[in-house]
Batch of 3 targets.
Target 1
Amino acid sequence: MAAPDLDTLLADIRACRVCAGEMPHEPRPVIQAHRDARILLVGQAPGTRVHASGKPFTDPSGDRLRDWLQIDEASFYDPTKLAIVPMGFCFPGLDAKGGDLPPRRECAPLWQARVRENLPNVRLTLLVGQYATRFWLGSRAHKTLTETVRQAERYAPDFLPLPHPSWRNSAWLRKNPWFGEIILPMLRCRMKDLLS
Ligand code: SF4
């Protein structure tokens, strides 16, 4: 049987109910993709605001991420430019301290490779956070995300690992100034090239 095209696959994802009953709400998959996209951004999972909006990165993490990428909202939400495919498509719920739970572990093995197969024009995959980095780099990733990000050049030109842009990582960003000095200019250069 032929593999489904991207539109069929996106419809299947939006109808997915694999985790129904495992989360305190109905599944609401959030994904943005088009065959023409040259950049793929693999994030973590929606938080409460994204779950409510149904649109990726409609939160302070998104503001910081767009600043890192030096991209305006129109381009960020243009699926022909940027595919946004998180490790977990649905908001997983909150832990006892009010933080987001990890992405549902059922999601990535089920969907990531199938979506990637339908994005033939991708030249750069941005791996945002530890879950995306571990999944896509496997044994090529270092033990810590910090070291993996520091060694970003090793994964070029296909991948560029990044920390999560959450406000929770503000202390990490202060502690690791090389990220702003070396990695962000590299990232912005690749973005400019691929969006032009
Ligand atoms: S998190 Fe992924 S696997 Fe689970 S219901 Fe949502 S789309 Fe399906």
Target 2
Amino acid sequence: MIMPTFKKELSLFARLWLGLGRLIGRIFLFLIVVSLIGWAVATAWFAWQHRGPVSALEQIPPGEAAMTQDVIQTAVRIVDQHRESTRYLRDAHAKAHGCVKAEVQVLPELAQSLRQGVFSEPGKTWQALIRLSNGNAYPQFDSIRDARGMAIKLLDVRGQPLLSDRQGQNEQDFVMFSHPNFFVSDVAEYRQNVAAQADGKKIMAFFPGWNPRTWEIRHLLIALATLAPPPESPTRTTYFSVSPYKFGEANAKFRVMPDPDNCPAYTLPPRNHDLPNFLRSALSQQLSTDRVPACFVLQIQRQDANKYMPIEDTSIEWREQDSAFETVARITLPPQDFDTPALNLQCDNLSFNPWFGIEAHRPIGGINRLRKAVYEAVSDYRHSQNAAQ
Ligand code: HEM
């Protein structure tokens, strides 16, 4: 007589259990569908907002000069904050893996339309200096996620310099890091973000207020992607200009990419990533110990203003399907001994700046206009403080 009751209770329990399962399943399905629709709407909205044509000219917003002065003050504050017992360091890319000598050869068979500025003479070889760095404002272990920098200075470049006080320096700099786009769009956003960072905010720097319309989630994702794990060696990663430049009459971005096929085959012995400076040691292993050169190509991506390739928004990567990169020069780092106290001090005392160069490669866009004032101010500040010590 007990059994039927038990059976009845069991089936009630089973039905309840199955019902709950169905409900959870439906809620789950509903959430997936809503997320997919949300993702599709957001993607369509982003594509609608970010479609060509765009301007091929610079557009300077009002108030940019005043915002630039604010950024200079914050940058100097960061240099002071990070000093402690060291010399005054750069506001960004403070730690170098080394400054190396390089040869930059313009492609001998370069197409006519690519013969611009320092690339005018096919086959010409420029002597150059390259500083390889970590992006952080204070030296830290190489294993920590970070951007990696490459700054090139071509030497003996003739032509009117963009900055009148660089007369006689005869240089053309190319300043890059290892991610194709920047975590801010323009000067206004940079000013807000870097001030928040100097106040110790990290992720919250991208959420300046309670209003969700001010939240920069896409830019936060770019910042997180820029802070990448280290490459095996500074010679094994690609560096991007991020911001645009003149390229003769055209506008262009550039990048430098490893080109091992043009160098003798080389296998880097494994590095101990727990050592603080293993990127310097990788560079030294290849160039100084094993005496094997490293090769790169320098490439140009010209703006097609009919596509979404804006000049005033550095958070937008110019897509390769809209305009392909074209090789204009080959870079070789010959075997050399770069890691000596004297050469390292010389390296720290160098200044690289996208504005150190000639008209044919004039930096354009808001972030580059900002860099003009900030690099000079920070460089002058750290040099004068170091000289006074
Ligand atoms: C387009 C994106 C940018 C790239 C690719 C970039 C890259 C670099 C690199 C590679 C260096 C190290 C140069 C060297 O080896 O001496 C550097 C230094 C520096 N960067 Fe940037 N940077 C960018 C944006 C900015 C912005 C927006 C600011 C601030 C307004 C800034 C401020 C600085 C400063 C102050 C230095 C140190 C200059 C010195 O003391 O010589 N950078 N940057």
Target 3
Amino acid sequence: MRAYLAGALFCLLTAAAAAAAPSATAPCPDCSLVLIGLDDVRADRVKAASMPRLERFARDAAVFTQAVSPAPWTLPAFVSLFTALHPSHHGVVNRYSDPSVDPPVPAVLGKSAPGARTLADVLRAKGFRTAAFTGGAGLSGASGLSSGFEVYADSRSFGGFDLSVPEALAWLETRKAGERFFLFVHGYDAHGFHAGHFPPEEDERFRSRRDEGIGGARPPADREERGRRERRYDEALGRLDRNLAPLLDRLDRPELRGKVVVAVVGDHGEELFEHGGVDHGLTLYDELLRVPLLLRVPGVKGRRVGFQVRTLDLMPTLLELLGAAPDPALAAQMEGVSLLPALRGETMTLDAFSETDFLLHASLRSLRTADGWKGIYDRRTQKTQVFRPASDPGERRDLAAKAPARRQELEGRILAAFDQEPLAPGAQAVVSGRWKKVREGGEVWLFDLWQDPLRGMSKVQAQRPAAVPPEILEKMRREGYW
Ligand SMILES: [Zn+2]
């Protein structure tokens, strides 16, 4: 319940955009849907030279050049994509809701946000046949992502499109003519943990760099190491493009070309040493938040959309495109808005909130405003960085000291959006999930109960272990996301 009340605030913050989006006749009420999830693909590295097949697809698609993810890593980002809820509202912010017990308690959408429906839930209820072929790992169905899918393939770890695309093509052959379907195809081809991304000696170096980052250290990389890492990443995007091509080719065949909405979306980007690190999850800079988002709708002309949108907007957009209007409860759940006005050439004004509590080694919240400002608030230090991404796309110049009024405004909006239980006058403490806000000596402090449980031991609620099979728990451990 609290998640939905909190969601209402995000909706208020984007009310101007919602009000400016008149309902429209669904452009393709008989269409099926293919959703392609490009794991670890950052928007600024998608180029014709390395990804010619995707570039060809883009000619007939709406290409959103400023699409922002609500989270910088796989699990919370995909749960957000499938629910249109921010991570702190769907609650699947890490693989475990409680890592402090043995066995740790996995986070499960049905428990953290009871009643929340996924895109697959909604389309299945409308009679769509549903199937998902994923690379596993963060896409494990155990977290609730498999909800609504009749078929959900997630057995491998960091698998690529070389495996999921043939499975998806085989499934397409089995469908009956005239049956509407929702097919989700996902691949980790660009991920550093994908087999073959690095030669063995570079793989070891990548993993040790990643572990150093998680441990809080970011030793500088020289030009040679940066260049090599960038080349490996671009090579991986090239392989991704080649592995994805058979699916895009199949979707171009006449029997599907005019009958399928095709969405291509990234979940988050990848650090290539821009802020000292590799991999993803620990920061909220644009190399992690800006992702590709392309939408091809039969009968709708391709265009480039240069204003900011959120991947949270994809679910409401797809439902409207497919003529699957949300009921009031679903409309209240979804924190994104339909992007149909953008497909008609209208401008929208959308602010983007993002967050991470990656493995409990970071706790950051950000706001990227439609008018070009960005604030990143660190919940541990209670400090806010301020950037102007349009003129400083690398986010190198922190303007917090030079623009104190802007810093205050951004910080105030971030706190209002994420800290739903402000400390009331006279109150000494309030607990919100794992966070405890305490008034001490005239100051208000925020404590992370998982990092500092003594601060709030009396208030921490014991959690019952979820019924997740031991072999899945073991697989999660092996994949190294804790
Ligand atoms: Zn990912």
